[in-house]
Amino acid sequence: FGVSLVGMLPFAMGALCGFPLGVRCAVDLYRRGRLTATEAEQAISFSNNTGPAFLIAGVGHGLFKDKRIGLWLYVLQIACALLSGFLLHKLLPDSKRRLAPLTTSATTTDTSLATIIKKSTFSMLSVCGMIVAFSIPMSFAPVLLKNPVLLSFFCSFLEVGGAAALAAKLYVSTPVAAMLALTNAVCFGGLSVHL
Predict the structure, then answer these.
(1) Is there a contact between 174 and 164 (Cβ–Cβ < 8 Å)?
(2) Distances from the Cα of 134 to the Cαs of 86, 138, 158, in angstroms?
(3) Structure-model confidence comparison of residues 95 and 36, the more confident one
(4) What is the dihedral of CA 109, 112, 113, 118, to 10 degrees?
(5) Where does the pLDDT of residue 90 fall: very low under 50, low under 70, confident under 90, or very high at 90 and above?
(6) Are 177 and 152 in contact (CB under 8 A)?
(7) What is the per-residue burial (b if ≥16 Cβ within 10 Å, else e) of 88-99?
(8) Which of 50, 71, 96, 124 is deepest in the core (most CB within 10 A)?
(9) 3-state per-residue secondary structure call for 167-192
């Protein structure tokens, strides 16, 4: 995957806890001098994943009334993330990347309980803010896109939660299209996650 063993920690955190924890972990390891810039960039490329709780309980059980759908989505997402990490490492070997000098943060990281809670709260608010911001164009999308299949695919590029809800409605009439749109939303994560 083009990262040291420590560089797999962001993947594990992203796979177990969901976004944005994997990316934050990679950035923190880079700032602490545990990863090079190249390793951090590579780790980020396959560490930004949806957590199992959201997919299995929220999407599978909550929207589709079938936990197996959520479990299969989770397995597929992790497989896609690993494949992406492997392919990016093979297609862009370290020698072809720009190598930034390794720098460490001059300030020490505050690990007090109060600081950890504040940072966690800020992360949650950031994610919630993106969800709210992207729900606005998703609420206007049905006016422009009357076809429910096109609507579901369009929204799968914006925000994963809203796209999952649309796919669940579409599943009754067009299950294959619904699963394709949902898979795209989960594996891509939506623009809201990337921002």
Answers:
(1) no
(2) 31, 6, 7
(3) 36
(4) -50
(5) confident
(6) yes
(7) bbeeeeeeeeee
(8) 50
(9) HHHHHCCCHHHHHHHHHHHHHHCHHH
